[in-house]
Amino acid sequence: MSDGVVDIFTDGACKGNPGVGGWGALLRLKGKERELFGGEAHTTNNRMELMGAIAALEALTRPCQVRLHTDSKYVHQGITTWLA
Fold first, then answer.
1. Which of 20, 43, 66, 78 is deepest in the core (most CB within 10 A)?
2. What is the CATH number of domain 5-82?
3. How far is CA 3 from CA 17, 29, 34, 55, 66, in A?
4. pLDDT value at residue 1
């Protein structure tokens, strides 16, 4: 990834809680996109939401500005309140 703001879109879901779950992330910078995804056989919804954001941040190759888009209150509060 080069200079600029990286937009990261994440989501996670789980069938049952706990149950089978998956996560996904889309990284976008200057018209280029990268998709990431994964899952677990026995997990929770909140864990999958977090995994999408964590995997996306781990995929960055150098320091940069990030704009994270999530529908998860848990992830949002984790970043803006608990880690701030």
1. 43
2. 3.30.420.10
3. 39, 9, 16, 20, 11
4. 41
**Coil/strand/helix, residue 4:** coil
Angle at 9 between CA 17 and CA 76, to 5 degrees: 60
Average pLDDT of the chain? 95
The pTM of this model reads: 0.90
The conformational region for residue 42 under phi > 0 = left, psi -120 to 50 = alpha, else beta, is beta
Type of residue at 44: T
Strand order in 65-69's β-sheet? 32-43, 19-29, 5-16, 65-69
